[in-house]
Amino acid sequence: MSGTVSHFVRLARPYQWVKNGFVLAGWLFGHGWHDPGLTVQAGLAFVAFCLVSSAVYALNDVFDRAADRRHPTKRDRPLASGAVRPATAIGFALVLAAAGLGLAAYVSPAAAAIAGGYVVLNFAYSLGLKHVPILDVFLIAAGFMLRLLAGTVGIGIAPSHWLLVCGLMVTVFLGFTKRRAELIALEGAASGDHRPVLEQYTPELLDKMISISAAGVITAYALYTVDAATVRLHGTDQLLWTLPFVLYGVFRYIFLLHRRGGGGDPARDLLRDPHLAGAAAGWLAATAWLLI
Fold it and tell me: Are the C-beta atoms of 61 and 79 separated by less than 8 Å?
């Protein structure tokens, strides 16, 4: 792969596309696999979000390039290192965004509106909302929730309240662990030089928020598996047996945060840690076996 191509691949961050699996959650739990048309729409919505999310990553790197140069690992990114010019990255982001929004519009007007909302949300985040403590984490969570809506409302599946509650708790948990990981990575350095909002957080405060949101994830999912409406919808009362995978995944993620330098990038952690990947694969396989 040539140097130029590799720089654009790094800007797009394809390994992060695993996060867009949230788009497919509605298809799975809404029994969308029974309808080939819905399956195609869900797949197209997934690809559309891969494109617009890569556009957002490239644009974020443009805004953050000065701070990234002072970061111990982010300084090697194409923009921070000077390998790609800002104008070139902006053009690349616009092409990706246009392709993603166009594909979303092909899926449905609702999917296009949700994908557009995702781009606008992240633009506002990059321009300054990421510097507002607590709100910054909720905006990260909102990006994931829009993925859920793209795979439900965007393709004509009504999202269940449980899906939205569990999705919100998981994404808030990931947002606070991300901030905690950033504090750990910058110990001994001036954290405000890299991300000003970190000056508003303390390890103790973030650990409390992580504990609360982790408990929320586990409790919400456990209640979902035994809810009478869930049993009626899926025709099984055995989803409770998928709970251990969720428990293990949450506890492993917290372990990685504190003992293995993880927590800052869930996509990278999922791809690199065999325990976390095993928990995710086990949950997915058990869920698919019970539902399908």
Answer: yes
